[in-house]
Structure formats: C-alpha cells, structure tokens
C-alpha cells in the first residue's frame, strides 16, 4: 500500500515537468485548453474501457493502452505492455462475470500530450466459482493518458487501489468560474 501512495506524487511531479513555465507561444496554447472538453474526452475513453471489460474482451481493454504502457492493479505487481495488461485483465475476467462497471473521472490535469486523470470506479458481478457468489468492488485510480501517434488518447500508466468511494466534498475541480 505504501508503494502506491508514493506513486501519486510522482505522477504529479511528472505533470509539472511536462508543463511549460515560460511565456512561449506554446505555453499560451496550453492555457487555452478546454479542460471541460478534455474531461469529456477522457470520460468517453473510460466508457470504452468499461464496455470492453463488460464484454469480457481483454484484448480490447489492452488496446486502450499505449504499446509501452504499464499498469498497477489494486492487488499485484506491474503489468507491462499490451500483452501483459491483457493477461492481467483476462485473469480477472476468468474469476468474475462482471455485470456492471462504472468509471467516473473526477479531475483531469492537462500537460501537453499527456493528461493526468484522477477518478473512481465500481463494479458488480458474480463469481465464476461453483458458489456463484455476488462480487463487487470500488476504488480510486490515477491514470496518465498519452496522445498516441494516431491522435487517440491512450492510457500510458495507471494505478488503482480498492477502497470504498465517497463523493468528493470540496467543490469539483476543473470548473470555470
């Protein structure tokens, strides 16, 4: 658990390093990013991820990641590359029949060709064991999205943790005043 917590500040430092701090024209462009539209784009990609997961299609889930992506699931070690991520996702799908899943983007932080997303997820399903016991889970995640060569946003890094999700109490970030 300690290791996961230490990765969040690193992700934020990464974003800070990607952001320009000078008064160049590129920095002016970064200031004109429509954060609400960007959040909608990332949320749409999250819905694609969930749809592929619900369909039991680990290859389609893995296609949502960059070729050199890495993912840390709530339990376990890094999965690297699309093949490794597909294998990890498939091992999850082999144990539970997921009947509903939702990913909610709470905040996006633009950083050029990268976006840091902070959100939460929940799922419902049934165990594939003989007991067919109900299964559910919820948690939080941080994902770093990268604009791929084809212009699509793909997950470059992600990490999650299982935890009961409580709605944010502070004013929602990324709202224009």
Outline the structure in words.
The chain has helices at 2-18, 25-31, 35-54, 58-62, 81-93, and strands at residues 65-72, 78-80, 96-111, 114-127, 134-147, 153-162. The protein has 177 residues and is α+β, with helices and mostly antiparallel strands. It has one domain: Roll (Nuclear Transport Factor 2, Chain: A), CATH 3.10.450.50. The longest helix has 20 residues, at 35-54. It is 35% helix and 37% strand. The chain is built from five helices and six strands, in the order ααααββαββββ. Strand 1 and strand 2 (78-80) form a beta hairpin. It has a six-stranded mixed beta sheet.
The proportion of residues forming helix, as a percent range, comes to 25-40%
Count of domains: 1
Q: Stretches where pLDDT falls below 50 for ≥5 residues?
A: 1-30
User: Strand order within the widest sheet?
Assistant: 2-1-6-5-4-3
Q: From the alpha-carbon coordinates, what is the Rg to the nearest angstrom?
A: 17 Å
CATH topology: Nuclear Transport Factor 2, Chain: A
> What structural class do you assign from the helix and strand content?
alpha+beta
**How many beta-strand runs?**
6
**Major sheet: size, sense and barrel closure?**
6 strands, mixed
Overall residue-averaged pLDDT value: 81
Task: Measure the end-to-end span.
Answer: 36 Å
> What would the principal axes of the Cα set say about the shape?
globular
Number of helices: 5
Q: In CATH's first tier, which class applies?
A: Alpha Beta
**CATH architecture tag:** Roll
Strand fraction equals 35-45%
Order of helices and strands: HHHHEEHEEEE
